[in-house]
Amino acid sequence: MDLSGSAPRGGSEGAAEGTPAEARSLPELVELHRAAGAPMRALAFGNFDGVHVGHGAILDLLRLEGARKGLRVTLLTFAPHPLTVLRPERAPQAIEGLSARLRRLKAAGADEAWVARFDEALRDVSAEAFAEALFGQLGARVVVASADSRFGKGGQGDLDLLRSTAEAHGSIVIQVPAVSRSGLAVSSSRVRRALEAGDLPTAIACLGRWPTLDGRVVPGDQRGRTLGFPTANLEVGAILRPAAGVYACWWECRGRVERAVANLGWRPTVAGNAWRCEAHVLNFAGDLYGQSGRLHLASRLRPEQRFEGLDALKSQIGRDVTLAREVLGALEAQGRRPLALELVP
Fold first, then answer.
1. Buried b / exposed e across 58-81, counting CB within 10 Å, b at 16+?
2. Fewer Cβ atoms within 10 A, N terminus or C terminus of the chain?
3. Judging by beta carbons within 10 Å of its beta carbon (0-12, 13-18, 19+), is residue 239 exposed, middle or buried?
4. CA-to-CA distance for 318 and 227, rounded, in angstroms?
5. pLDDT tens-digit series, residues 80-102
6. For residues 120 and 85, is the Cβ–Cβ distance under 8 A?
7. Cβ neighbours of residue 150 under 8 Å, at least 6 residues apart?
8. What is the dihedral of CA 217, 219, 223, 228, to 10 degrees?
């Protein structure tokens, strides 16, 4: 099956609900590859949600093969998540937004990160046609995949099909070993469960970094300012929400990283009716409205709770700030302060 035929340009028009403008159909990706001069590629495909240490192992192999054989390191991800089309009731919330995922993949060493638009058309592509597209039309000379890789209509494609198709094109498939933490395999699903349960140590171990929340600072009700603890109300979009609570964290903005304490949740003391991410940046005075930033979550200090009044809330915030300083200071003494990686637009 030749997937290089004409197709509508990628973008929001005619795409599945929630499909970003970066997403392209498989025929469009073939056109993109040809327009770039049809370079040979070391390639992997998957969702790469969260870009955890298992994904890091894939990237390590791709970079090694790319350097040895002069191949472009290319990652093919999907948007929206395939389950949004296949089984909407089981579609997970993303650990990070797509833009953050693509920036992180490129920062980790990918030459290119492609987004395939997962819609009914891609759903119905047979496993054989998808594998043929990788090796015959997208220039894959090396594909890195895990033992449980599944692809194509009905999930019929597997590692054996990849290998047989690769052999027909003089290419190879490398199986990446499973990566475990605390005796259990690392996966995006495990990261999601840990974040939703407030199990930050497990999430950190699986991600190999601090969990992050990206967004733009928008106006809030300014109650924190009246309590003596002004907060930045970070609008994070439709991504997975970590367990409600108070977190010691770092605030990254415009190339700087500052200590912070954040409340994630519903603000029961003030009868809040919407989930919010509100961060008090320590030792900072200034206006953050409209700025993009990132929170690096280091430790969940306590669950969210309701207090009898604002005075009790203010006293607890003071204790939270003191504890956050201690926790972050200890981590920084170990050299674990995050770097400003310029990943925030």
1. bbebbbebbeeeebbbbbbbbbbb
2. C
3. middle
4. 10
5. 999 999 999 999 999 999 999 99
6. yes
7. 156, 157, 158
8. 50
Contact 345, 279 (CB under 8 A): no
Those residues with Cβ within 8 angstroms of residue 96's Cβ, 6 or more apart along the chain or in another chain: 49, 50, 51, 104, 212, 214, 239
Distance between CA 279 and CA 338 in Å, rounded? 17
CATH of domain 210-333: 2.40.30.30
Residue 204 near residue 211, CB atoms below 8 Å: yes
325-301-245 Cα angle (round to 5): 125
Instruction: Mention every residue, 6+ apart, whose C-beta is less than 8 A from residue 299.
Output: 200, 247, 248, 327
Residue 158 amino acid letter: D
Q: Give 261-314 pLDDT, tens digit per residue.
A: 999 998 767 766 788 999 999 988 888 889 999 999 999 999 998 888 888 889
- Domain 26-178: state its class: alpha beta
User: How many C-beta atoms surround the C-beta of residue 345 within 10 A?
Assistant: 9
State the pTM of this model: 0.90
CA distances from 44 to 7, 14, 114, 121, 210 (A): 24, 27, 10, 21, 24
Going from N- to C-terminal start, the domains of the chain cover 26-178, 179-208, 210-333
10 Å CB burial of residue 101 (0-12, 13-18, 19+) is buried
DSSP state of 330: H
**In this structure, what is the dihedral angle of CA atoms 201, 206, 208, 213, given to the nearest 10 degrees?**
-70
